[in-house]
Structure formats: structure tokens, C-alpha cells
Amino acid sequence: MITFSSSEGSACSVATDSAKFEVFPVKVPKDTWCLLSHPEEALENKKAVSWPGEYDFGGVTVRAVGQEAGKQVSYACHTENIRIAFVDAPVLEWTDTEIEKLGDVDVLVLAADNPKKITSLIEAVDPRIIILFEVKNGDLAGASKACGASSVSAVSEFKVKPSTLPSDSRQVVVLK
Predict the structure, then answer these.
(1) Residues 6 or more apart whose Cβ sits within 8 Å of residue 123
(2) CB of 133 closer than 8 Å to CB of 53
(3) For strand 129-133 and strand 107-111, is the pairing parallel, antiparallel, or unpaired?
């Protein structure tokens, strides 16, 4: 089972049976696995992932996809038979090559940013579950509507396992 939790200071915390990590933290925590949205040259935390490439930690396989010549990094992770993509703000236009690197996506964790760009990305990857997180100057209501949600109700924690993935619909979750 994978648990997505709201986290002060980052987009979310993710816990699997074998690993725990922070996604897009504002401040890089010490000695904690974390996925950063921008490349960092000198990091004290050797568990921080911030460059495009492929990584593996605690049973989580990670592909970091660089956009805008590597200035912004998004992630495709595979763990417990679920593929998860993490996309931070600003949500950018995605090329076919970048979408291909992202691969198949079951769960899309996405900044509630530009509804038009969000719609384009969702159409391209067709996730079964979308988890939105709030960002400064974002558009949570517009992003939720773009994802197909009729109303916005936030939760502090969301759990998913392969058997609970919707097969013929899409679920939208807002982490708060």
C-alpha cells in the first residue's frame, strides 16, 4: 500500500512498505529521501534526487525527467506495481518525448497550477487517480475542474494499492 500524506513544507510525503520520501520540499531535509523540482549542485543530503536520470532507493524505481533544458525536474516512480508521476509548479507544456519518458501513469500527483496545461498533461498520460496539491498563486478550483472533479474536498491522507485503482473512471483527490 502507498500512502500519500499532506506535509508542511513539501507537496506531499509518500510512504510505501519499504521506503518513505518527501516530494518537492521547500527546504531539503537532512538524511531523508526527497525528490526536488530543480537541480541542485551541492547538497548535503545525499538522499536528495534533483537531476534528470534514473535512480533506485528502498524498492522505488525513479526516472527523473528534465524540462526546459533540465531546469525543472518531474518524476516517474514505480513501486508496489503502481506507477506514479510527480509534477511541480509551474506546470509546463510537455513534449511527446517528455511524455514518453514519463511513461504509463496510474497516479498523477500534480501542482494545482495552470488548468489549461494540466488538461493537456492529463489527456496525454490518462491517469486513473489524480492527486492535486496547492501551490502559491495556483488555481485549485480551476485545476480541480480541469481534472474532472465536480467539487473540491481536501483530505490529509490518501492510500492506494493496485486493487483499488479505478478501472473505468478517474478519481480526483486534493491533499491539504
Answers:
(1) none
(2) no
(3) parallel
Domains, the chain, with CATH or none = 2-175 (3.60.15.10)
CA atoms within 13 A on the CB side of 125: 33
Say whether 45 sits in a helix, a strand or coil: coil
Which amino acid, residue 52?
A: P
| CA-only gyration radius of the chain, Å | 15
What does the pLDDT profile of the chain (176 residues) look like in tens digits? 999 999 988 999 999 999 999 999 999 988 899 999 999 988 888 899 999 999 999 999 999 999 998 899 999 999 999 999 999 999 999 999 999 999 999 999 999 999 999 999 999 999 999 999 999 888 888 999 998 887 677 899 999 999 999 988 889 999 98
Q: How far, in Å, CA of 47 to CA of 22, rounded?
A: 11
- In angstroms, the CA 130 to CA 68 distance is 24
